[in-house]
Design a protein that fits this description.
The complex is a heterodimer of chains A (240) and B (206).
Chain A lengths: L3 E10 L6 E11 L4 E5 L6 H8 L7 E6 L2 E2 L5 H11 E5 L10 H11 L4 H14 L15 H13 L5 E5 L7 H16 L3 E6 L2 H4 L4 E6 L2 E5 L7 H5 L5
Parallel strand pairs in A: 3-8, 3-9, 6-7, 7-8
Antiparallel strand pairs in A: 1-2, 1-4, 4-5, 9-10
Chain B lengths: L2 H9 L4 E2 H11 L8 H13 L3 E9 L5 E7 L1 H11 L12 H11 L5 H25 L7 H30 L31
Antiparallel strand pairs in B: 1-3, 2-3
Classes of the chains: A alpha/beta (240), B mainly alpha (206).
């Protein structure tokens, strides 16, 4: 069963002359352990796709399933619970709370979901440790570099039992080395069974994905084939 | 890629046999640039002729009874290597890039959707980038080969620049669509394609 399934999803903003069709019949399935990148220029519908997949806004029409659960059939409380427990978000500008330490930021979604502070902090420390941030746990966001902040944001997105990771230009504000470090973390989360969706206009970032889909004017215009083995690059011979 | 100077560089840290040079070359370039042994010996002969390396018969023999030869860099070779390393390659002339030419031609041909042409190329390049990135992802930090990592990064940045150009071209075409229907059905010989003429033919790369 797919972790995320979107069927014929449309999203329309405004009415009459100001009407904008952000998504026009998008189908997308992402399996557990799979990382899908969505590429497209500004205005192609990337961000709308991500916010609808994460239940942050509702589609105008179509169906969205997360872990087999129909988002449109859920109450507000149920979707809020799903967001806290199953869906992690990573944004370009980190979205960490300035008044909380790294560990508190990571533990927050668990605490909001009713997990005891002690258990939540333990899970947060585990997530931070996996990302090599043990020694930064008690630092506040303004005491961290951009790369460290984004790694904390990834830790927050995968802490607990999150099954779906949604990232919007997660390395957009970082240099290439830190951007690569963040994508390695996203890739590692997917190898542990998390389903990932990354929206980006950056081909280097998208190339970490198993599959890349190209959005144009709210429609899926194209997608890459399965990635062949990398040995195909090394056996063909290159000009010397 | 200058095999000549790469061999000089490998010899700068000590004398080596021809076969060893080939193995070291491939190892240092992450096996991204395979090199055949014939190419190594031909280049060594030329370097020896030019006084940049010197060969000496080794004590042990090859299986066919002939003497093994090991090579070392000469002082002139070290000067040549230093000069080559500090001389930027000629990037002043635009490369004859087939992908760019195809998009420029697609703009001019009636009945061809240039956006589709762009997307076909974008998808192909992104698929290549996925393969290079998979190589990079599979190499753990512990066993990462520096030459390999640098070579893969170079290829990824090169391919990335192609995608960026395709994105920019598509944006430009959307802002100023080409009305190919209004253009004559047959190519006009009087109006050549809007391609910048290379300043020097010899400067073309590839």
């Amino acid at each position: 069963m797919s972790m995320l399934e979107m069927r014929q999803v449309t999203k329309r903003y405004g009415h009459g002359p100001t009407e904008v069709n952000a998504l026009r019949g998008v189908d997308l399935c992402v399996d557990p352990g799979e990382l899908v990148a969505v590429m497209g220029p500004s205005g192609s519908g990337k961000s709308s796709l991500l916010t609808i997949a994460g239940s942050l806004e509702a589609p105008t029409s179509g169906e969205v399933f997360v872990g087999g659960a129909d988002l449109l059939a859920m109450s507000r409380n149920e979707t809020a619970r799903l967001r806290r427990r199953s869906i992690g978000y990573v944004f370009q500008d980190f979205n960490l709370l300035a008044g909380l330490t790294a560990a508190e930021n990571v533990a927050l979604p668990l605490e909001l979901d009713g997990t005891s502070v002690k258990v939540a902090r333990r899970a947060a420390m585990l997530a931070l440790g996996e990302l090599g941030l043990d020694d930064k746990a008690s630092r506040f966001p303004d005491q961290l570099s951009g790369g460290e902040r984004q790694r904390v944001a990834v830790a927050r997105a995968v802490v607990g039992d999150r099954r779906l990771l949604l990232a919007d230009e997660p390395s957009g504000a970082l240099d290439s080395e830190n951007g690569e470090a963040v994508m390695r973390l996203v890739r590692a989360a997917c190898s542990r069974g998390v389903a990932g969706v990354v929206v980006t206009h950056d081909a280097q970032l998208a190339s970490w994905a198993d599959r890349v889909i190209f959005l144009r004017d709210g429609r899926v215009a194209d997608s890459t084939a399965a990635v062949p083995g990398p040995e195909s690059l090394l056996t063909g011979g290159r000009p010397s | 890629m200058s095999v000549r100077h790469a061999l000089l560089a490998l010899l700068s840290d000590g004398p080596k046999f021809g076969l060893q040079l080939r193995q070291d070359f491939e190892a240092r370039t992450g096996e991204v640039w395979p090199l055949n042994v014939g190419q190594v010996y031909t280049t060594l002969q030329r370097l020896e002729r030019d006084g940049l390396v010197a060969g000496e018969d080794a004590d042990d023999d090859l299986a066919d009874g002939g003497p093994r030869k090991h090579f070392h860099i000469t002082p002139a070779g070290e000067v040549e290597l230093g000069h080559w390393l500090r001389t930027p390659p000629d990037l002043s002339s635009p490369p004859r890039d087939e992908l760019v030419i195809k998009v420029l031609v697609a703009v001019q041909v009636a009945g061809v959707d240039v956006h589709e042409v762009i997307q076909v190329h974008r998808r192909y390049v992104v698929e290549l980038m996925q393969q290079w990135t998979r190589l990079k992802a599979d190499a753990t930090t512990a066993d990462e080969d520096l030459g390999f990592a640098l070579a893969v990064d170079a290829e990824l940045f090169r391919l990335d620049s192609v995608v960026r150009w395709l994105d920019a071209a598509e944006g430009r075409l959307r802002r100023r669509p080409v009305d190919v229907a209004a253009a004559p059905a047959t190519p006009r010989t009087a109006a050549p394609l809007p391609m910048p003429a290379p300043r020097r033919r010899t400067g073309l790369r590839r």
